[in-house]
Write a structure and sequence with these properties.
alpha/beta; binds iron/sulfur cluster; binds cobalamin
């Protein structure tokens, strides 16, 4: 069979700076799983075509016109393009399958456009899909996420496609995506991995990959996509330390502060860790993963800032992740504390996020119960600067005013000066400068939304949850985002189906668990398939 695997990493680029950012940075966001799916399909004897799309060129343009089946992976914010392409392929008689973060969060909505929506997957599930074991209109899942994945060597054709220039030349940002573990021991209510148990992937596989990289792709950056890297710190670091010091590839991680304690930070430096992005999220909540016990407010800030200073002495690039607008946020305190943190740790880039209720999370369930999700807001707006829910303690006008205050502090001349002075590394300076400049440009979008909230009564009513009529501003922005694909998605298509975000196995609700026809010896035992009744 001819199989296409398309990973969408962004909507079509709209202006020159956007284009440059996508070519340099976004191109390097390719995930591990679509590459693994591509290798598995090849190993199963199919003619396989893999293409990451980061907003430049024609998505899937290199695929043959007579594909039998296409797998599309997408984030929720890019789901409109995924849906448009599913329509295009569906009309051409190609079987369509969606996987990745959006399918995991909103599988039932995906079935409006795709034949199959995949939640968790492994090689066997992919083989069963290719063998046609599932009826169109099914949400399917392996019993748990895969236990093992192809080696870097096996993924090399995909890595060249995603991370090299013209699949041939590496450049300064070339990044090899890797995983050493799956899941996470914490259960942050906004995260789609809140209930995925932490599991190490085979360490001998990790060792083989690191050895391969150190000899075949020396110096190339490794991006660990583990939701929480190093939870079993000693076991993972033993493997990294087994590579001779001069041959260790630089690597980046996302990890919780509770993991990044004491002498471990030096171990990270010695193994060539160059970037860490811990989630602080809030000054009131999520203190367990920050490792600060029950501390909150200024006490938490002092402990966290101290830990960041320690990290800064050892790791060249740091990012601190925050969410503003959680139910625990109230009044000016979160703003003042976050600004204070930025001032105390200018070397750490503050990633300021808006809460987003992804399906399958406790946050989504609670907001659904409280009727706080803006039901007619298309999924394309499930990311900053857009707000898709009502907030407990801020009206929309006050919220955007405060967000703008935070961003203005983050991008002030003084913060930029301190940021640039905090490092002697040229690459880090370039990244700080670029991120500050790009955030300054985004502030205008926040200001525009604030202006409409103040001046347009209907727009404000929509954001207060009192009207379900999607403002024209969002229709217009949606069409701009989709570019020439906009004509494939009607106004009705844009309205999400939030009713059954996630089917519960065997539930008596509106979705039924059906046994896959391929079950039995060597079949799909252990897999679940759900079809809307
Ligand atoms: C590593 C990571 C990143 C990395 C790498 C991105 C990448 N392309 O993978 C970086 C830092 C670049 C990143 C950036 C962003 N991220 Co991120 N990221 C993660 C993180 C921590 C782990 C993802 C991962 O690789 N897990 C390991 C894999 C194996 O597990 P998995 O993704 O669950 O995949 C399973 C299934 O979904 C399925 N599957 C996955 N892909 C495919 C593909 C096919 C074809 C099939 C059939 C199946 C399939 O199989 C897997 C095994 O069962 C998750 C949080 C989390 N805890 O999961 C957030 C997460 C995926 N990110 C998220 C977001 C929002 C973003 C950003 C938009 C943030 C921002 N504000 O800019 C950007 C956008 C990136 C982009 N457009 O490509 C959200 C996505 C929610 C959503 N529904 O869209 C998540 C879930 C965090 C959250 N809020 O809960 N991210
Ligand atoms: S610590 Fe990170 S990966 Fe783990 S549940 Fe919280 S947000 Fe998700």
């Amino acid at each position: 069979m001819k199989v296409g695997i398309l990973e969408i990493l962004g909507s079509p680029a709209r202006y020159p700076t956007d284009l440059a950012y996508r070519l340099v940075m976004r191109k390097q966001y390719a995930s591990v799983t679509p590459q693994a799916v591509s290798v598995w399909c090849r190993q199963l004897g199919h003619e396989t075509f893999y293409a990451p799309y980061y907003g430049v060129g024609d998505p899937g343009g290199q695929f043959p016109t007579d594909l039998d089946i296409v797998f599309i992976a997408s984030y929720t914010q890019d789901s409109a393009l995924a849906y448009a392409l599913a329509k295009k392929y569906g009309r051409a008689g190609v079987r369509t399958v969606i996987g990745g973060p959006h399918a995991k969060a909103f599988p039932v909505d995906c079935l409006r456009f795709f034949d199959l929506a995949v939640k968790e997957c492994d090689k066997r599930l992919i083989a069963d899909i290719l063998a046609g074991h599932f009826d169109p209109g099914s949400v399917i899942s392996s019993a748990k996420p895969f236990d093992d994945l192809p080696t870097v060597q096996e993924r090399l054709p995909e890595i060249r496609k995603s991370a090299f220039l013209w699949s041939r030349r590496r450049y300064f940002m070339t990044t090899v995506p890797m995983l050493s573990s799956m899941g996470c021991p914490y259960n942050c209510n906004f995260c789609i991995d809140w209930d995925t148990p932490y599991r190490l992937l085979p360490l001998d596989r990790l060792a083989a990959d690191l050895r391969f990289l150190s000899t075949e792709l020396p110096g190339v950056l490794v991006g660990f996509h583990d939701p929480n890297f190093g939870v079993k710190f000693d076991q993972v670091l033993d493997v990294l330390e087994a590579i001779p010091p001069d041959s260790r590839n630089p690597y980046m991680i996302e990890s919780s502060l509770s993991v990044l304690r004491g002498p471990r930070v030096k171990q990270l430096r010695e193994t060539n860790c160059v970037a860490v992005a811990p989630g602080v999220e809030s000054w009131v909540d999520y203190s367990n993963k920050a490792g600060v016990g029950r501390e909150a407010g200024i006490e938490k800030l002092e402990r966290v800032a101290e830990q960041f200073r320690h990290l800064h002495e050892n790791i060249p690039y740091l990012q601190a992740n925050f969410i503003f607008g959680l139910d625990t946020d109230e009044g000016d305190e979160p703003i003042e504390l976050t600004k204070e943190f930025m001032t105390r740790t200018p070397f750490a880039w503050p990633a300021l996020n808006i809460p987003v209720p992804y399906g399958g999370t406790p946050l989504y369930d609670r907001l659904g119960e409280e009727d706080r999700i803006l039901k007619s807001m298309p999924f394309s707006f499930y990311y900053a600067p857009y707000l898709v829910m009502t907030l407990k303690n801020y009206d929309p006008v006050t919220y955007y005013e405060k967000l703008i205050e935070l961003f203005e502090h983050c991008c002030s001349r003084e913060m930029l000066r301190q940021r640039m002075n905090s490092t002697t590394r040229r690459t880090v300076k370039i990244i700080h400068w670029t991120r500050t400049a790009s955030t300054r440009a985004w502030i205008n979008v926040y200001r525009n939304i604030l202006r409409m909230l103040r001046s347009d009564r209907e727009f404000r009513r929509f954001h207060e949850g009192r009207s379900q009529v999607l403002p024209e501003f969002y229709h217009h922005t949606y069409e701009q985002m989709l570019g020439r694909y906009a004509e494939l998605i009607s106004r009705k298509d844009r309205m999400p189906n939030l009713e059954h975000a996630v089917p519960a196995p065997g539930s008596d609700g509106p979705l039924t668990l059906i046994l896959s026809p391929g079950g039995g010896e060597g079949g799909v035992r252990g897999h679940g398939a759900f079809r809307p009744r």
